[in-house]
């Protein structure tokens, strides 16, 4: 990208969201013009730290500011849908953290508004820019995996102690971290792989006081879904409460020549299994081997390359980073892709219809679990 145009960005929600401020500030094609959160003292603290002049405690006021081209939303989950809709209506480009929304109606409206306004919408899904995913993708693109036979994702996380919109949340309403890599891997530029039908079972039960919050009883939800235009199916598992499991956001791809498996425990390396063949015989012990996943900072503009590394994490004590292992160095990749999409250099990935499909897998999966595992067709918007 040789353009020296700068996208004028406002970051909304300054917990996880604050992490992106220094990346935008260092990016040659961005300028952070404003930040927003409701708590004035905390707002000023962040704005002072990064030297940002415009500060909004009201999101509605921010949207009226003509000096802002794009908003990057990092507010609580129930706000993602309504805030994205309001921003598109106000003529802003939108980057929004996961999930896109929590209802089919909001998702449909975002997709329709994006089409009507021509503004960029991108769901800022970290996993599909994490180095583990980029490594598996590279193996696939080089033909090393062979034919993809199956895909699996899991996201297990203990949300006790997290803010008040989490307790009781249906696990599949926050499934994009495990759904997205399965679909992204089979996507080609301009031709995203999309889920078709999903079937899901709920398992176990969360403690009684959490159940009425979202009328969702399940401790674990596990779903299988079809991928349109392929003979491949994927399986995803999610848990949020009352499950003994270290944090794990995982992605496995089973291929005819090689398979990639995410590490079992944080801090280990992933495993690549190689098929034993007469041409290249392998003993059982030689089939699996641990691999060191490389970093993919070389894909980024030089000034933001350091942000793939843990040392560049501003708030390393935020639960997100402790539990998410720093999100595989994905933040600068997401930031760069969004800015390039706004400048017309490439399509957003995921764009609005793709973000919708990734999020709808989870919404429809929860619907299926409540109906005892009945298959649900994922709507195409
Ligand atoms: N890997 C990933 O993709 C990750 C994604 N996330 C997503 O990011 C979101 C934010 O996570 P996190 O920072 O942990 O959440 P928090 O609940 O800790 O922070 C939410 C932020 O949004 C602000 N906020 C809340 N309501 C509004 C509003 N109406 N207008 C403007 N700002 C508002 C809050 O400030 P105030 O109360 O002062 O308004 C606060 O700064 C979550 O919804 C989660 O889905 C989080 C971590 C990692
Ligand atoms: O690292 C993380 C911590 O928690 C968040 C909420 O589930 C995740 O989105 C994230 O990937």
UniProtKB/TrEMBL annotation:
Domain Gfo/Idh/MocA-like oxidoreductase N-terminal: 7-123
Source organism superkingdom: Bacteria
Xref: Pfam families: GFO_IDH_MocA
GO MF annotation: an example: 1,5-anhydro-D-fructose reductase (1,5-anhydro-D-mannitol-forming) activity
Protein name according to UniProt: 1,5-anhydro-D-fructose reductase
The protein's Enzyme Commission number: 1.1.1.292
Keywords tagged on the record: Oxidoreductase
Uppermost EC category: oxidoreductase
InterPro entries, alphabetized: Gfo/Idh/MocA-like_OxRdtase_N, Gfo/Idh/MocA_Oxidoreductase, NAD(P)-bd_dom_sf
Signal peptide limits: none
């Amino acid at each position: 990208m040789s353009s020296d145009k700068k996208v004028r960005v406002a970051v909304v929600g300054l917990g996880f969201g604050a992490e992106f401020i220094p990346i935008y500030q260092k990016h040659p094609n961005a300028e952070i013009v404003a930040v927003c959160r409701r708590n004035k003292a905390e707002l000023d603290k962040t704005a002072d730290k990064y030297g940002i002049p415009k500060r909004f405690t009201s999101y509605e006021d921010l949207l009226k500011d003509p000096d802002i081209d794009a908003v990057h939303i990092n507010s609580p989950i129930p706000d993602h849908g309504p805030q994205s809709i309001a921003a598109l209506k106000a003529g802003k480009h939108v980057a929004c953290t996961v999930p896109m929304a929590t209802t089919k109606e909001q998702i449909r409206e975002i997709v329709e508004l994006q089409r009507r306004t021509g503004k960029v919408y991108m769901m800022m899904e970290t996993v599909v820019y994490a180095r583990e995913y980029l490594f598996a993708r590279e193996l696939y693109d080089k033909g090393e995996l062979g034919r993809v036979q199956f895909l699996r994702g899991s996201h297990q996380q203990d949300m006790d102690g997290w803010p008040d919109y989490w307790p009781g949340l249906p696990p599949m309403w926050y499934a994009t971290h495990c759904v997205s890599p399965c679909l992204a891997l089979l996507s080609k530029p301009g031709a995203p792989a999309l889920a078709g039908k999903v079937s899901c079972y709920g398992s176990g039960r969360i403690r009684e006081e959490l159940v009425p919050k979202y009328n969702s009883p399940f401790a674990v939800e596990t779903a299988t879904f079809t991928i349109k235009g392929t003979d491949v199916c994927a399986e995803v598992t999610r848990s949020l409460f009352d499950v003994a499991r270290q944090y794990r956001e995982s992605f496995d791809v089973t291929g005819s020549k090689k398979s990639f498996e995410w590490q079992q425990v944080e801090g280990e390396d992933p495993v690549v299994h190689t098929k034993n063949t007469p041409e290249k015989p392998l003993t059982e012990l030689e089939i699996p081997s641990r691999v060191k996943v490389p970093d993919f900072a070389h894909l980024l503009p030089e000034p933001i390359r350091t942000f793939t590394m843990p040392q560049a994490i501003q708030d390393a004590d935020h639960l997100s980073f402790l539990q998410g292992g720093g999100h595989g160095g994905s933040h600068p990749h997401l930031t760069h892709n969004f800015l390039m999409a706004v400048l017309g250099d490439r399509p957003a990935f995921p764009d609005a219809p793709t973000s919708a499909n990734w999020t709808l897998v989870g919404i429809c999966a929860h619907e299926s679990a409540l109906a005892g595992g009945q298959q649900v067709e994922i709507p195409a918007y």
